[in-house]
TrEMBL record, chains A, B:
Signal peptide: none annotated. This is LacI family transcriptional regulator. It comes from Leeuwenhoekiella aestuarii. It comes from the Bacteria. The keyword DNA damage does not apply. Keywords: DNA-binding, Transcription, Transcription regulation.
Length: 340, 340
DNA sequence: TTTGATTTTTTAAACGTATAAAATACAATA
DNA sequence: TATTGTATTTTATACGTTTAAAAAATCAAA
């Protein structure tokens, strides 16, 4: 005795009216469609009584819209991304959209799968932090006129909307701050990925050093979520070998966290001698001792801009030139970057 | 000039055959349905050529199945849950299901929204870590014969399938281990939530102490993700006030992490005097210094059991008595729980 | 060249909703 | 009374699939 979920038809039959009428009332179009007050009341009462839940799959098929957006980032548990995600979720809710979150882990194959999974299920829009090599899938979405907004990094030569920050300036400013604090031997620890935002950060670091006549000292770690211990080994060796380093600029917040652990392991007192600054802020940094300085991305503004673009694309399917938004971050100076 | 995505009909028209034939080939039923080899080849070639992607919304409406499962946990960024999630995702993929992850944040309202969101979109099954107060929605799903498997904690008086661990035994064993290591004044720091697994852990702690004639010393922190600093204040005060404590048993891995930071802040050397053990393991624990002992849940087995139950429910919609699986965890002893 | 058997392909309906267009009811007007 | 207008409700179709059942095509035997 399998209980079938009631459909509009069942309700219509029970009340001896047409499905159209029920549908109008259900969608709050009763008045507009001039359904009589009594009938509206009757239908509403019945809907409530049986606790009717519409079949959104059927609705989506009919309307062509799922009212679902996808937010795909490198790692949703990274507080930088999850903060943006939370704001996006709020704005979406207010506009009657739901948001699905997922992590690409910077893996192309996985990202492709996710994009297809959601596109075939007709989600209405994508907000994506694109991993390297994903150009083709993004183009595919674009060709099919699916709203896409890139975030955190753009894809060169691709005419897509994006919201990013000025990575070069941010990195230059951060490095300059360390120089201003009196550090003279500033290392840069980054990820060995061919992504434009990483190149920009590196370039900003080098530019600041050159202006002051210092020379760069860079360590590149392979990006590999599954092998954190090995990255930590690399960082450790690097620090131990370069005894003259008096400050380190980490290119991402998770690198900083790994780095701090390494520093602690090498020598619990070492942290008090090194100047530290991180690209991207993290909750962790104001809890650590010493508190850690960071170049923070404008989380609120990014989320707002992303959703502004997304909502406008959802509204007018025909689109003009892509919006290319480049925001400035702010340097948050805490204890770790002050000369001791 | 909006480009419509091609449908089965379009393909059928282009090839001058019926949609049925196309559908059979698309679903690999060509041979079975005795479509001629040449026609199969022709259709397949065309499908590939236009890079056809079926509309899964339409398919779901027709078949009544989305082949999507939902994995709802307290916090997907907690490594305990994300490890289980990863295995579940693997098994699901092999069985042609996709998995959506989401965090309830232990919030009833949010969980209700999520359950409705997904149920109305006809997902095929739910694996849920139920927050307190969610009984009604779970019952609702059960009544509608939606496959649900609870995990991490059960709901008393609810006839649902679940996979949990023996929290009482785990806590007792962990406490006993501290006693065996020579600690005499063991505190228990837990979350002030009316959840059965928390009660069991507390009871296990108390039972072990009583057997050895020690008396319990318990701190309960309110569960509140948004207010981590305040919990840390509470822990800090508790430790500072109870100078005689020589060991602490934390009821969850995130409490342990907060706790470790507090201990470090109070006195960098304090960690070397205290015995520490955590319920639930974490990646963090083997990186910390000292490495942290934990009572680890059998992540692999839990995931396997969860999926075994889920897949069987998905197969035979009619179900007999619920599967109630209670697993044993294992004590992972590391440096932090050895007497110094 | 008809019959039957077999192979191959198509017709038609269904899933549950939304909505344009048509239909009905009812009152007011001429 | 017939006509027009307005208010209310329904009919019919579409969205893109899947699939039972019917139909057509092919071939072998009689």
């Amino acid at each position: 005795m399998k209980k079938k979920r009631p459909s509009l038809k069942d309700i219509a039959d029970a009340l001896n009216i047409s499905t159209t009428t029920v549908s109008f009332v259900l969608n709050g179009k009763g008045e507009e469609k001039k359904i009589s007050k009594e009938l509206i009341a009757k239908v509403e009462a019945h809907l409530k009584e049986i606790n009717y839940k519409p079949n959104l799959v059927a609705r989506s098929l009919r309307t062509g819209s799922t009212r679902v957006l996808v937010f795909m980032v490198e790692d949703i548990s990274n507080s930088h991304f999850s903060k943006v995600g939370r704001i996006i979720e709020d704005i979406s809710y207010k506009n009657d959209y739901r948001v699905l979150f997922c992590s690409t882990e910077n893996d192309v194959k996985r990202t492709q799968d996710l994009i297809h999974l959601f596109h075939e299920r007709q989600v209405d829009g994508f907000i994506i932090v694109p991993p390297p090599g994903i150009e083709k899938e993004i183009s595919y979405l674009l060709e099919n006129e699916v709203p896409v907004v890139l975030f955190d990094r753009k894809i060169p030569d691709l005419e897509a909307d994006y919201v990013i920050i000025n990575n070069f300036e941010g990195a230059k400013q951060s490095t300059q701050h360390l120089i201003d604090s009196g550090y003279k031997n500033i290392a840069f620890i980054t990820i060995d990925l061919d992504q434009i935002q990483m190149h920009d950060r590196e370039a900003g670091y080098i530019a600041a050093l050159e202006e002051s006549g210092f020379s760069p000292n860079i360590l590149k770690i392979p990006y590999d979520t599954s092998n954190i211990p090995s990255s930590r080994e690399k960082i450790k060796k690097f620090i131990e070998k370069n005894k003259d380093i008096d400050a380190i600029f980490f290119a991402t917040n998770y690198l900083s966290q790994s780095g701090l652990k390494c520093i602690h392991q090498i020598d619990a007192k070492l942290i008090n001698k090194l100047g530290i600054i991180s690209f991207d802020d993290s909750n962790f940094f104001e809890m650590y001792s010493p508190t850690v300085s960071a170049f923070a991305q404008p989380v609120d503004e990014m989320a707002n801009q992303l959703m502004k673009i997304m909502l406008s694309k959802l509204k007018n399917k025909e689109q003009g030139v892509p919006s290319k938004v480049v925001l400035d971050g702010t340097l948050v100076t805490r204890e770790s970057s002050l000369k001791k």
